[in-house]
């Protein structure tokens, strides 16, 4: 009898359920345009991602950001080094690397669950066949690149995590409790 009452009381008390907050970065190539979709797919709206950085140092290909005409990049087009094509209201600032640099940082605002932005970046792969000039990027070139992100969870704590690019997708996850989320 006591067990039944205890179980009934526990079933009536709403609890914060364990959930996984997720940042997903997808590489989307279209010809010579290198495009990335950055999405906060957290099930809890209050989970805000405040910073996202991409580091190409650990990528399989010798890849870099081509941020200026000339220099190490492959000049096959006249694309700007960065173009936020959708969701630019979430991006407060971008810490651009020098030409040939390998890390970029996005500072974000109001980037909560269910929101995304698309960004075109001129990223090139180093080639020994072109006197060291860059070539078009492939998914394999990005393998092993890291994406790191910082969140502020519902309790107000700031936490950073890192994900690794595999098959053109990097996923950064946090385990946290979402108030009002359904229990498993």
Fold and architecture overview:
The protein is globular, with a radius of gyration of 20 Å. The two termini are 25 Å apart. Residues 1-18, 128-133 and 180-184 have low confidence and may be disordered. Strand 9 (123-126) and strand 10 form a beta hairpin. It has 184 residues and is mostly beta strands. The protein has a five-stranded antiparallel β-sheet with strand order 5-8-2-1-13, with no helix packed on it. A five-stranded antiparallel β-sheet has the order 6-7-3-11-12, with no helix packed on it. Strands 4-9-10 form a three-stranded antiparallel β-sheet, with no helix packed on it. It has two helices and 13 strands. The longest helix has 11 residues, at 2-12.
Which key phrases capture this entry?
184 residues, mainly beta, Immunoglobulin-like, five-stranded antiparallel beta sheet, 2 helices, globular, disordered N terminus, disordered C terminus
Indicate the topology:
Blueprint: H1 2-12, E1 17-30, E2 33-40, E3 48-55, E4 63-65, E5 82-86, E6 91-95, E7 103-108, E8 115-121, E9 123-126, E10 134-135, H2 139-142, E11 146-152, E12 158-164, E13 169-178
Antiparallel strand pairs: 1-2, 1-13, 2-8, 3-7, 3-11, 4-9, 5-8, 6-7, 9-10, 11-12
Shape verdict? globular
Neighbour order of strands in the largest sheet: 5-8-2-1-13
Mean pLDDT: 75
Order of helices and strands: HEEEEEEEEEEHEEE
Task: Give the CA-CA distance, first to last residue.
Answer: 25 Å
Secondary-structure-derived class = mainly beta
Number of strands: 13
- Rg, please? 20 Å
Total count of helical runs of at least 4 residues: 2
Percent range for β-strand residues: over 45%
As a percent range, the share of helical residues equals under 10%
How can the largest sheet be summarized?
5 strands, antiparallel
- The count of domains is 1
| CATH architecture classification | Sandwich
Task: Specify the CATH class.
Answer: Mainly Beta
């Amino acid at each position: 009898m006591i067990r039944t009452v205890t179980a009934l009381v526990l079933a009536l008390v709403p609890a914060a359920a364990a959930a996984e907050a997720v940042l997903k970065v997808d590489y989307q190539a279209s010809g010579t345009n290198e495009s990335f979709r950055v999405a906060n797919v957290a099930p809890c709206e209050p989970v805000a991602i405040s910073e996202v950085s991409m580091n190409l140092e650990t990528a399989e290909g010798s890849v870099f950001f081509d941020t200026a005409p000339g220099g190490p990049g492959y000049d096959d087009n006249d694309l700007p080094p960065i173009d936020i094509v959708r969701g630019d209201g979430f991006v407060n600032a971008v810490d651009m690397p020098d030409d040939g640099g390998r890390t970029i940082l996005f500072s974000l605002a109001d980037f909560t669950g269910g929101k995304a932005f698309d960004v075109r970046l001129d990223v090139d792969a180093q080639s020994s066949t072109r006197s060291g000039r860059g070539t078009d990027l492939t998914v394999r070139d990005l393998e092993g690149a890291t994406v790191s992100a910082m969140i502020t969870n519902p309790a107000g704590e700031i936490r950073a995590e890192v994900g690794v690019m595999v098959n053109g997708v990097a996923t950064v996850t946090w385990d946290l409790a979402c108030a009002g989320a359904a229990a498993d």
